[in-house]
Predict the structure.
Amino acid sequence: MMQRYDPDTLFEEVAFVAYHFGWSHDEVLELPHWERQRWCEEISDINERMNETVAPDHQPDRGGGGSLLDDDGDGIVLQNSLEDL
């Protein structure tokens, strides 16, 4: 019997894994649901660890400026966690 998953959750998982791994839509959809969820967890863990080690001068300015660039014009590291979506 085929199990149906919430469409919003499925889109979220596919977009998250495809974005971070560069896999195609079809490649991600071919994965079993449990494996897509596991990859999402692993990607989130990696991103969280990477963001913990970001130098203080590259932390995002929370002042509401809305820019993705710091004062030097360098990009910042954004935390991409599935829980944040």
Remarks:
- The first helix runs from residue 7 to 21.
- Residues 14 and 29 are 7 Å apart (CA to CA).
- The two ends are 30 Å apart (CA to CA).
- The chain has three helices and no strands.
